[in-house]
Amino acid sequence: MSNPSLSSLPSLPKLGVATLLRALFKRPARSADMPLSATFRLDRIDRVHVRRYNAAFGFVGEAVPITYLYLLAQRAQLATLAGRPIPFRIPGLIHVENRLAMEGVIDPDAALALTTVVSLPPPAANGAVLCVLETRAFAGERPAFICTSTYLIKRGSHTERSSAQPASAVREPVGSWTLTSNAGRAYAALSGDWNPIHLWPWTARLMGMRAPIIHGMHSVAQACAMLEQARGQRATRLDSRFKAPVPLGSEVKLVGGSDGEGFVVLCNDRVAVEGQMTK
């Protein structure tokens, strides 16, 4: 590559079983310098993989959808956590919020530099401890996208959860889908995220779950694809908050917000995901 600073960066690792096993058995460090960061190089985005992803969720065309960028950021984030001393265990982290923002048109053939910064905000008033991973991607000097993932490390004295759809956010239903029993494994094969809680009943139980649940970003991707078709516009910013798990085999419903930007994903009449999508 012509850019020596970019060519000197380590290649962005693949996300798969080997990476997951490394993360599962990584022990927390007694001391770690926070915040910490790491930068990786991605020579190009796999167009064939993008087509497979788009077909899986119903994204129209061959452009890179905003939720696909999470797959790239997740690889950078996990590689950063696995390759640096951190004061917490990676298994057990609970994804509670995700923010994605495109800074411009994504060119699959443009090399990217992805820098991830891991920080630990002060504990919340109720004792909850969070971890924030912000990944910024650049194509040369041009910002490409930002992905900020927030994870719960330690629960507080109480956790607020929505039990029903907020009446003020209700609009006409956008669509629905049914998760098959192998939906978690299918998305794992597509995304590389083989977290055991998403695969089989026995692997979910090993991780302390009663039953396997779908990946949170699977729900977000399906919602985003349906909203783009319903609203006739592509998303360039997507903010999502994860409120409740979605078990495999569930019927999932999507409704739009009255403001034309908000959305709610419902499972068993409970809010599973709520967020905003803007063009």
At a glance:
With 279 residues, the chain is of the alpha+beta class. It has helices at residues 4-7, 17-24, 47-57, 68-83, 183-191, 201-206, 216-231; strands at residues 36-42, 94-102, 112-119, 129-139, 142-154, 173-178, 237-242, 251-256, 262-267, 270-278. It has 2 domains: 1-159, Roll (Thiol Ester Dehydrase, Chain A); 161-279, Roll (Thiol Ester Dehydrase, Chain A).
Q: Helical percent range?
A: 25-40%
Main sheet characteristics = 10 strands, antiparallel
CATH superfamily of the largest domain: Hotdog Thioesterase
CATH fold descriptor of the largest domain: Thiol Ester Dehydrase, Chain A
Total of domains: 2
Proportion in β-strands: 25-35%
- The largest beta-sheet arranges its strands as 1-3-4-5-2-7-10-9-8-6
Oligomer class: single chain
Q: What number is the mean pLDDT?
A: 90
Q: Which architecture name of the largest domain does CATH use?
A: Roll
Count of individual beta strands: 10
- Gyration radius, rounded: 18 Å
Number of helices: 7
CATH class of the largest domain: Alpha Beta
Structure description:
- It contains seven helices and ten strands.
- It folds into two domains: 1-159, Hotdog Thioesterase (Thiol Ester Dehydrase, Chain A), CATH 3.10.129; 161-279, Hotdog Thioesterase (Thiol Ester Dehydrase, Chain A).
- A ten-stranded antiparallel β-sheet has the order 1-3-4-5-2-7-10-9-8-6, with helices on one face.
- 25% of the residues lie in helices and 29% in strands.
- The longest helix is centred in the N-terminal third of the chain and has 16 residues, at 68-83.
- The chain is α+β, with helices and mostly antiparallel strands and 279 residues long.
- The model has no long low-confidence stretch (mean pLDDT 90).
